[in-house]
Amino acid sequence: MNKGNNVQNNETQEQPSNAQKNKKVLSKLVLIVFGMFGFGFALVPLYDVFCDITGLNGKTNESAASYSARSVDETRTVNVQFISRTAQGIPWKFEPMEREITVHPGETKFVKFYAKNESTQDIVGQAVPSVSPGLAAAYFQKIECFCFNQQPLKGKEEVEMGLQFYVDPELPEDISTLTLSYTLYDITGKVDS
Amino acid sequence: MTTDTLTEQPSADHDSHDDHHDHKPTGIKRWLYTTNHKDIGTLYLWFSFIMLLTGGALAMVIRAELFQPGLQIVEPDFFNQLTTVHGLIMVFGAIMPAFTGFANWMLPMMIGAPDMALPRMNNWSFWILPFAFAILLSSFFMESGAPNFGWTFYAPLSTTYSNGSTAFFVFAVHIMGISSIMGAINIVVTIMNMRAPGMTYMKMPLFVWTFFITAYLLIAVMPVLAGVVTMLLTDTYFGTSFFDAAGGGDPVMFQHIFWFFGHPEVYIMILPAFGIVSTIIPAFARKKLFGYASMVYATSSIALLSFIVWAHHMFTTGMPLAGELFFMYCTMLIAVPTGVKVFNWVATMWRGSLSFETPMLFSLAFVILFTIGGFSGLMLAMTPVDFQYHDTYFVVAHFHYVLVTGSLFSIYAGAYYWLPKWTGNMYSDSLSKWHFWCSLISVNLLFFPMHFLGLAGMPRRIPDYALQFADFNKWVSIGGFAFGLSQLIFLAVVIKCIKGGEKAEAKPWDGAEGLEWTVASPAPYHTFSTPPKVD
Ligand code: HEM
Ligand SMILES: [Cu+2]
Q1: Which among B55, B93, B201, B412 is least surrounded, fewest beta carbons within 10 Å?
Q2: Are residues A36 and A94 in the same domain?
Q3: Which residue has a Cα nearest atom 35 of ligand 1?
Q4: Average pLDDT, rounded, for chain B
Q5: What is d(CA B271, CA B263) in angstroms, rounded to the nearest whole number?
Q6: Which residues lie across from B399 on neighbouring strands?
Q7: What is the full DSSP assignment across B408-466?
Q8: Is A76 found in the same domain as A112?
Q9: How far is CA B519 from CA A1, B199, B427, B504, B506, in A?
Q10: Within this chain, do residues A129 and A177 fall inside the same structural domain, yes or no?
Q11: 3-class SS at B392?
């Protein structure tokens, strides 16, 4: 643009020219832009860590808890409810074989879920658990769960799937009912063979 | 001096110098190639007005459908497309480009600079915008239709359940984002490097401060928006599972990332409005702005706080109590600096010799109606009551008060304030007052009853509703049509003003202050080639 006159104005001293100054600021700002773009993606693992600590999103442990000996708190009972649903598009029947059980904290229990592929296609399903209230998720310990694995079913095939768990005796006093919800997704396209 | 920042070749400086100074291209080429901040400002302003009318036309169809209960005019799916595209166009096409237009026109003149610091980038940042909106709008004509998942594009609505418009949507948003980022970078560099000698930061007009802070907000959060739409794209088309629970992702995380962008975004749309109003009220109260320094600090603290309140949009997603409380109190904290601002505007008017020219009328309406929007915001900020109000028309009422009678009214106030400087002519006073009064009455008829509809439980984003909401919706629709038509008066005022009218003096408002009034009206193509001295 018309900076001709401007030049004289600023060049009286040996200051860096405007162009250089602009470039400096520009490159810093561009760095911030890329940094923030990266930060957006960094939020993904950060969110997981944060949820792990706080139990924010009701996610339960993703690998098996150990059998280690623990004391059973006989003085207290907790209701555990089971809910199941199928995501849109998966033609399976999927439900808990028991809807609700009562456990003592620390006590190991075994329950079963029933699934049937009602179509004639082979389909791979994946159940994703979630615990409500979210804060209780950290205290719901699965020793063995069908949700740790993918579940392939041939057309019309059916299966009973097991879940072994205990409720941590450290569970806060004010929680007396836990709801474990499973959503079943069709991941046929996404499985690597 | 500055042109060559992007090219590094001193000779480029000369070319463009000649180009623009002596024989600037004419016709369409002038506008395509222009690197002049005033031309680009004009382009931005016209573009945003066209987008306002486009988005407004969509709103008219929405209100026509909602005039009566039942489905009359459009299919539910198309209705969703209308609300989605209406929101996107108004946010990214009307409000934000209008402010960038103001920045381009006014910032160099207010700080005594000859142009924006990076004029070529400026040209780019404008000219990619029309493509973004062409992409977005073109999806209406595709078989699958336009985006129908709301302007907030929550996953999995925009991924698993998308109608196939997600790619178009994502690319459009990418382009809009790049445009805003370039615009913002330009604003920051200009303000940091091009101020006239003697203009320290604390001597800058408040207008300049608000744009400076807004530009930083944009630089910080637009990349996050770009990131989240990129994740959306890969989730939808490339099999990633950022937001897909089946693959270990989490759809609630979408909302966290989106609102981490989204809440600062709403301040991006209101801070410049604060700047405009803080310029106009002193001019027509004939007093200095009350509490200049506190305004600067209030603006900065609003900007900083805006990064830690995002989850007030997510109270009902099942956060732990501690989270709900944290976000509730932080949100209420923002009301403090906002209150400081309102207080300062009122104090500026207190015992001033007020006169009520159109820019002042819009500014006064801004102060009152924006405050109403702030109050409904405070109500929504209370977690327990938000469980009732969330996703109802109460939220719609809230954000239209802050965005229409807030941001849009400030844009009108600014346009009426600087039109004489832009065109060299005074506009028709009576016509502009018609515009104001018609807008004021209709906008309240349009948005005020929405509060009651929301309190009574009418959900947002639905094409049909229960019978008991019928009467209010009828009035809302009538207000909507009237408000829509009133905006055509503005178009008439502007066209008349460009064509002619009483010649404007260099400083048509006796109480106005600032360097922009020291140059002739209309502002010459090049101003402040020699920087003024500020003391
Ligand atoms: C005192 C200041 C404010 C407070 C306390 C406040 C609070 C809130 C809260 C709590 C919500 C979420 C409501 C819900 O979805 O249930 C909300 C929504 C919204 N606010 Fe504000 N707000 C304030 C100012 C503003 C300003 C200045 C703007 C923009 C200029 C704005 C724009 C919006 C928008 C667009 C939404 C709706 C987003 C959507 O769901 O589509 N707010 N506000
Ligand atoms: Cu917000």
Answers
A1: B201
A2: no
A3: B399
A4: 92
A5: 13
A6: none
A7: IHHHHHHHHHHHHHHHSBPPPHHHHHHHHHHHHHHHHHHHHHHHHHHHTTPBSS-S---
A8: yes
A9: 18, 18, 19, 12, 6
A10: yes
A11: strand
Q: Which residue has the tokens 């463009």?
A: B16
Q: Which of A18, A43, A183 sits opposite B193 (nearest CB)?
A: A18
Ligand number, closest to the Cα atom of B331: 1
Q: Which of A38, A54, A70 is the last residue of a domain?
A: A54
pTM of the model: 0.88
Comparing CA positions, the residue from B247, B219, B36, B24 lying closest to residue A1 is B36
- Chain-centroid distance, C-alpha A168: 20
**A18 and A86 assigned to the same domain:** no
Sorting pLDDT into bands at 50, 70 and 90, what band is B22? very low
Same domain, A86 and A145: yes
Would you state the torsion angle of the CA atoms of residues B378, B383, B388, B392, taken in this order, to the nearest 10 degrees? 50
Of A63-77, A168-182, B171-185, B373-387, minimum mean pLDDT range: A63-77
> Is it the case that residue B7 has pLDDT exceeding 70?
no
Q: Write the DSSP assignment of chain A as a string of letters.
A: ---HHHHHHHTTS-PPPHHHHHHHHHHHHHHHHHHHHHHHHHHHHHHHHHHHHH-TT----SSPPP-------TT--EEEEEEEEE-TT--EEEEESSSEEEE-TT--EEEEEEEEE-SSS-EEEEEEEEEESGGGGGGEEEEEEGGGS-EEE-TT-EEEEEEEEEE-TTS-TT--EEEEEEEEEE-GGG---
Same domain as A49, residue A63: no
Q: What is the pLDDT of residues A35-68, one digit of tens each?
A: 999 999 999 888 888 877 766 666 776 666 666 6
More confident position, B26 or B297? B297
Which of B227, B250, B531 has its CB closest to that of A37?
Answer: B227
* Domain that residue A82 falls in: 59-190
Question: How much is the CA Rg of chain B, to the nearest whole Å?
Answer: 23
pLDDT at residue A181 greater than cutoff 50: yes
Token pair for B12: 């480029």
Contact B376, B397 (CB under 8 A): yes
3-state secondary structure B181-212: HHHHHHHHHHHHHCCCCCCCHHHCCHHHHHHH
Per-residue pLDDT reduced to its tens digit, A98-125: 999 999 988 888 999 999 998 888 888 8
Same domain membership, residue A102 and residue A15: no
DSSP result, B482-501: HHHHHHHHHHHHHHHHHH--
Residue of A nearest to B8 (CA): A19
Q: Are residues A125 and A170 in the same domain?
A: yes
In chain A, the number of structural domains is: 2
| Pair of tokens at residue B11 | 């000779």
Residues 53-72 of A with CB under 8 A from B: 54-59
> CA angle, A29 as apex, A28 and A35 as ends, to 5°?
90
Residue numbers of B annotated as active site: 86, 115, 151, 179-180, 263, 265, 267, 278, 312-313, 338, 341, 460
Amino acid at B332: M
The number of angstroms, rounded, from the C-alpha of B15 to the middle of its chain's C-alpha atoms is 35
Give the pLDDT of residue B6: 39
